[in-house]
Amino acid sequence: MFWETTCTLDGVFVQILQLAISGNDSLYHIRKLWHIPVDNIVYSEWKEHMNQISVCDTRRKKKKNHPCPSGK
After folding, report:
1. 69 domain-assigned
2. Which pLDDT band holds residue 60 (cuts at 50, 70, 90)?
3. Cα–Cα dist 68/35, whole Å
4. Which pLDDT band holds residue 40 (cuts at 50, 70, 90)?
């Protein structure tokens, strides 16, 4: 699940990108936040980076359902 949040905290505009991935044994939460104004290009690049993140299962019996990319 990917989501974006903005808020104002003590008069400071905050932008947050968050990604949650549920694996077989764990929940992974990745977050990038800015407490300063961020350029739209930088923001878009971070969204693209987070879009590339995935979880794969390295256990043999589960590889069919969640294979790792080659080289991993």
Report:
1. no
2. low
3. 35
4. very high
Q: Which residues fall within 8 angstroms of residue 67, CB to CB, at 6 or more apart?
A: 56, 57
Which pLDDT does position 9 carry in this prediction? 86
Contact (Cβ atoms closer than 8 angstroms) between residue 47 and residue 17? yes
Handedness of CA 42, 46, 47, 48 (dihedral sign): positive
Q: Are 1 and 20 in contact (CB under 8 A)?
A: yes
Domain, as residue range, for 22: 2-62
What is the tally of structural domains in the chain?
1
Report residue 50 as tokens.
């987070």
Q: Is 27 helix (H, G, I), strand (E, B) or coil?
A: strand
Please state, as a whole number, how many other Cβ atoms lie within 10 Å of the Cβ of residue 9.
Answer: 8
